[in-house]
User: Fold Type-5 uracil-DNA glycosylase from Blastococcus mobilis.
Amino acid sequence: MALDADGFPVTRSAAGVVRAAAGVRELAVLDARVSGCRACPRLVAWREEVARVKRASFRDEDYWGRPVPGLGPADARIAVVGLAPAAHGGNRTGRVFTGDRSGDWIFAALWRAGLASQPTSTHIGDGLELTGVRVAAAVRCAPPDNAPTPQERDTCSPWLARELALLPDLRVIVVLGGFGWTALWPVLAAAGYRLPRPRPVFGHGVEVDLEGPRGRLTLLGSYHVSQQNTFTGRLTEPMLDAVLARATELAGTFARE
Assistant:
C-alpha cells in the first residue's frame, strides 16, 4: 500500500476501502489507514479546500484536512457514532467531535457520565482520555453542507464496520442522529447481527436489542449534538445525559453477566 507525504497508507476507491479495512487487527493501524483515505473525490476536494482557505478565526492554525479517525480505547463497552466531522472542527483539529460546539456538548456529557477525563476537547494533546467508550463518525471526511451522499456513506462503511469489530467488549452503541442510525444497519447485518423487521424508526431514546455472534448488543438513539438541535432546545443536556446514563447502565449490567 502506497504512503502519502505524511506517511499514511493511501486508499483511492471503494474497493480499496474494503481491502484496506479487512483484516486490520489493531485500532492504531485502522486509524492510520482511515487517515490516508482518498476514496471519495467530492469529499477530498472539499476537506482540502477548507483546510487551505481556512476560517478567519483559525487562519494561523494548520488544518488536519484529512479523514478523522475514531477516539477511545479498544476495551470500550460503549461506542458513540455520529454523522461526520465538521469542516472547522474535526477537519481542523484531526480529532473526532473536537473544536466545535457539537464537540463541546458530547465531551461534556461523556465527562458527566464518567467516561471522559475532562469536559472539553480542544486539540490533540490537550490531556483528554476516554474510558469505556469509543467515539467515531459514520463518514470520516467533512462533507459540504454537512451532508454526505448515500454513496459516500456506503464507501466509508467498511471503516466503521472494522472499528466496531475491533471492540471485543462492545455492548452498547449510542447513535447520534438519523444519518448514523441508517448507516449502522448494513454494518451490523454484515457483522452477523439479526436485525428486526421492519427496522426500528430512529428517535431520541429509542432502544433496540440485537443478538449476534458476540451476544447481545443494544442500540440507543439520541438526537444529534448539532447546533440546530442544541440551540433550539430539541436536545437538552438532561436528555443527552439520560441516554448516556442508560448506556453506562446497560454496559455495566452486561459486564456483570
The chain has one domain: 68-256. The CA atoms of residues 101 and 227 lie 7 Å apart. The first helix runs from residue 14 to 21. The radius of gyration is 17 Å.
